[in-house]
From TrEMBL:
Organism: Gluconacetobacter sacchari
One Pfam family named in its UniProt record: Aminotran_4
Pathway(s): Amino-acid biosynthesis; L-valine biosynthesis; L-valine from pyruvate: step 4/4; Amino-acid biosynthesis; L-leucine biosynthesis; L-leucine from 3-methyl-2-oxobutanoate: step 4/4; Amino-acid biosynthesis; L-isoleucine biosynthesis; L-isoleucine from 2-oxobutanoate: step 4/4
InterPro entries on file: Aminotrans_IV (IPR001544), Aminotrans_IV_CS (IPR018300), Aminotransferase-like (IPR036038), B_amino_transII (IPR005786), BCAT-like_C (IPR043132), BCAT-like_N (IPR043131), BCAT_family (IPR033939)
PROSITE patterns from the UniProt entry: AA_TRANSFER_CLASS_4
EC number: 2.6.1.42
Broad class of enzyme this protein falls into: transferase
Protein name (Swiss-Prot/TrEMBL): Branched-chain-amino-acid aminotransferase
């Protein structure tokens, strides 16, 4: 089923791609997620026929029947990953196989057709090759890739769809945060995911449910929202689009464990390995919000950071919530352990440092 031949992509080049001059202008300051490349990868699925017609085609609006299941029952999943311009001018990706695996696991949780990992990787690579001129160079610039899958069967009965569209689009991006440390609002009223729910799947519904809390965070002048567990409203889980780490004064790193309610972040997993490589003690264990406030007051908690594909490693300067505000370290993001891990991660991703775990894949 997933042999290379079966998934040979048909290329239908864009008849009127963006001009070189316009692309150069767009790449100079792309922001995050507003500029898109010329092409997209599209693969269709139908029960009885399987995955078929893989194409790289002009990026364009997609036609959906108004009864398409995704529009009613939110059967949708996605991924977020990046292609980088390496120091030698080549193109690299970081752990794309981990995204392929998580996409398959998300599909399973949402009762969707599973995209074979080989097909997922081919779609991403073919799109990066087709739009390689869109990969920006520069410190925090990259080509953000957004693979996603929607239920496309036109049927109003509540059941898993029998038809799907798997699409990959690409967006040249700069830094997600503008620099320095971020402030985080601790959401006490809204939770993101409950035990037995879909917290570990990267499905759009999780993000829809987080938006009101994110808006509340903005109203409180915070950059991001931190969610607590749904059962006791006590244990720190994760942020709206990132995992979270804490650094104690003895150099120990603490991060909430994976238990089905948080996203198993690929950056999180990578940093756990990099920290262990450095001889740091790492604890994946529950950390209560009360303990966090007490540790900040006593000086035991010295650093905190958010991590994810978009955020990379971003220092957290303060937490604010109904129990008041705590400042972490100096509050300005000049945090040594966070900075060291960030440098190590970026160095490997950009091909500037050795890659002992074989995480980096060349595309060309
Ligand atoms: C809710 C959530 N948690 C964590 C992450 C970090 O995951 P990753 O490191 O795989 O990007 C993301 C970003 O994708 C996310 O949306």
């Amino acid at each position: 089923m997933d042999s290379a031949d079966q998934f040979r992509f048909t290329h239908l080049p864009h008849p009127a791609p963006v001009s070189v001059a316009q692309r150069t202008e767009l790449l100079a300051n792309p922001g995050f997620g507003r500029v898109f490349t010329d092409h997209m990868a599209v693969v269709r699925y139908k029960e009885g026929q399987g995955w078929h017609n893989p194409t790289i085609e002009a990026r364009a609006p997609i036609a959906l029947d108004p009864a398409a299941a995704v529009l009613h029952y939110a059967q949708e999943i996605f991924e977020g990953m990046k292609a980088y311009r390496a120091a030698d001018g080549g193109v690299v990706m970081f752990r794309p196989d981990a995204n392929a695996r998580r996409f398959r696991q998300s599909a399973e949780r949402m009762a969707m057709a599973e995209v074979p990992e080989a097909l997922f990787l081919d779609a991403v690579r073919e799109l990066v090759r087709a739009d390689r001129d869109w990969i920006p160079s520069g410190e925090s610039a990259s080509l953000y890739l957004r693979p996603f899958m929607i239920a496309s069967e036109a049927f109003l009965g509540v059941k898993p769809s029998s038809e799907y569209l798997f699409i990959v689009i690409a967006s040249p991006v700069g830094a997600y945060f503008s620099g320095g440390a971020v402030s985080v609002w601790v959401s006490e009223e809204y939770t993101r995911a409950a035990p037995g729910g879909t917290g570990a799947a990267k499905c759009g519904g999780n993000y829809a449910a987080s938006l009101l809390a994110q808006r509340e965070a903005k109203r409180q002048n915070c950059d991001q929202v931190l969610f607590l567990d749904a059962a006791e409203h006590r244990w720190i889980e994760e942020m709206g689009g990132m995992n979270v780490f804490f650094v104690m004064d003895d150099g120990t790193l603490v991060t909430p464990p994976l238990g089905g309610t948080i996203l198993p972040g690929i950056t999180r997993d990578t940093l756990l390995t990099l920290a262990r490589d450095r001889g740091l003690t790492v604890r994946e264990e529950r950390y209560g919000i009360d303990q966090c406030y007490a540790d900040a007051a006593s000086g035991r908690l010295v650093e905190a950071f958010a991590c994810g594909t978009a955020a990379v490693v971003t220092p957290i300067g303060r937490f604010r919530g109904h129990r008041g505000e705590i400042v972490i370290g100096a509050g300005n993001g000049a945090d040594p352990v966070t900075g060291d891990l960030r440098e190590a991660l970026i160095g490997i991703q950009r091909g500037q440092r050795p890659d002992p775990h074989g995480w980096v894949q060349r595309i060309d």
